[in-house]
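S.,

Sequence below, as promised.
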Amino acid sequence: MEPLLSLTAGTPLLLLAVLAFNVLLLVLCIMQSVRIKRLRKSLNRLLAGTGGANLEEGMYRLMDEVDEVRKRQDDQQFTLNRLSQRVAGQCANVALVRYNAFGDLGSDLSFSLAIVDDAQNGVVVTSIYGRDESRMYAKPVERGESPYHLSEEERTAIRKAMNNSAGRLDEKSR
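The prediction came back faster than expected:
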């Protein structure tokens, strides 16, 4: 019987294969070591600031805070809707029409001032200036009309007030 350690024709090839396999295993170990290091770094960042507390407890705390924020947001939305309704009811649409009530006297010293809300409810104030006297009238406005007769200047002021949604004072002589 020949000694077991005798050289055979395939021995150098076998040793080379075993050496290549060992190098491959070494590379795989290094790659896994790098992956583990990255995972530890990510885990440390995730658990930073928990003060040793359970991660699950931290998640429940965050969920409770999110619920509180949602409740506050719902309350704020309700308040915003109420304020929007109130603003729509305010008389913020204003227009001024100046004119000469008496063609032969003076200049545009007479005026009609319309102050209405978005539903065309409000008041129109008219001042008629004359040489000897001046008169002022106020007429209620509901849905763009009044129970009293409206002059053309008053109708123009109401129409301009409704077209003037920014609430700026619009003035134009005729």
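The longest helix spans residues 11-47.

Coffee later?
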